[in-house]
Design brief:
Number of domains: 2
CATH architecture of the largest domain: Up-down Bundle
Radius of gyration: 39 Å
Order of helices and strands: HHHEEEEHHHHH
Structural class: mainly alpha
Largest sheet: 2 strands, antiparallel
Oligomer: single chain
């Protein structure tokens, strides 16, 4: 015996309203995607996709921080490079003047003029050794004050103010740091062994009418120190440049992956929304016919 299920008007009404709500919900989802431009507006839209989006967003924040670190490190290294280049040129000029001072035919007045010029070079070198970037000395590590004192410094003439082993570093990738400062004492020497004290001695020799050419080898040693630091600084600049290129590539990759997960295909969403609107209008028409009968219709 076949049992025929009884379909009441109440059942039809509930089923019709449920379908209308489903259609309206789909339209709401599509409209939200179209207005926001993303597929995932709440975690419930795609739980696994949400986890990927959060991970990629965190990755992009890290890359942005690495990029800022690398840019700051690059600025430090460029500042050091400029200071070292200027120091090298100044010391080369001092060497030329020292060679001239060794000319036995040069008179006392000319030697005094050379001495004054060398003293000017000493002051310029001291200024370069105390070069700062954003108010911080680039040759004194983490010390906040100048890298070197002057000739009348309380701690001794041309004393180095930096802290041994305290370096300035920037993290440019996961577990990758680059030193962005330089040790002034290794570049310019310190105290009596500094290039500043050497130029003072050469100046004093010239003022006394003597021959300063015996100190040429000492000048060459200081020039070698500067060139060595220039080479090391250039290597660190290359490391930062490579890190910046890698950060840029990883940022593009991360954004592409994020877009593939959450960005909507706008043309497809518009098409789906139009189709859903047609379906919704049809459902409304069907519901109007189903829900139209009243008690009088049944009594007839």
């Amino acid at each position: 015996m076949t049992t025929i299920g009884r379909v009441t008007h109440f059942t039809v009404r509930n089923s019709t309203l449920e379908n209308l709500q489903n259609n309206l919900g789909k339209m709401s989802t599509l409209q939200s995607q179209m207005s926001s431009g993303v597929k995932i507006n709440r975690p419930s839209d795609d739980p696994s996709g949400t986890a990927d989006v959060l991970r990629l967003n965190n990755e992009q924040r890290q890359l942005a921080q690495y990029s800022r670190n690398a840019a700051d490190g690059e600025a430090w290294l460029v500042t050091i490079d400029a200071a070292l280049q200027t120091s090298s040129e100044a010391l080369r000029k001092a060497r030329d003047l020292t060679v001239q001072g060794g000319n036995g035919a040069m008179g006392a007045t000319s030697k005094i003029a050379l001495a004054e010029e060398i003293e000017g070079i000493r002051d310029a070198l001291l200024a370069q050794a105390n070069t700062t970037y954003l108010g911080r000395p680039v040759f004194a590590g983490t010390t906040g004050g100048p890298a070197f004192g002057g000739a009348d410094d309380a701690a001794g003439a041309y004393s180095f103010k930096g802290i041994a082993g305290a370096t300035v570093e920037r993290t440019v990738a996961s577990a990758t740091t680059v030193r962005v400062d330089a040790t002034g004492s290794a570049v310019y020497g310190e105290g009596e062994d500094s290039v500043f004290a050497l130029l003072d001695e050469i100046s004093a020799t010239l003022r006394a009418g003597g021959d300063p050419s015996a100190r040429l080898d000492d000048i060459d040693q200081h020039m070698d120190r500067i060139l060595t630091e220039l080479s090391a600084n250039g290597a660190r600049q290359n490391q930062v440049d490579s890190a910046q290129n890698l950060i840029a590539d990883n940022t593009i990759t991360s954004k592409t992956r994020l877009g593939a997960i959450q960005d909507v295909d706008l043309a497809q969403v518009i098409l789906d929304l139009q189709s859903q609107e047609v379906a919704y209008q049809g459902a409304l028409g069907a519901a109007a016919k189903v829900l139209q009968p009243t008690l009088l219709d049944f009594l007839r």
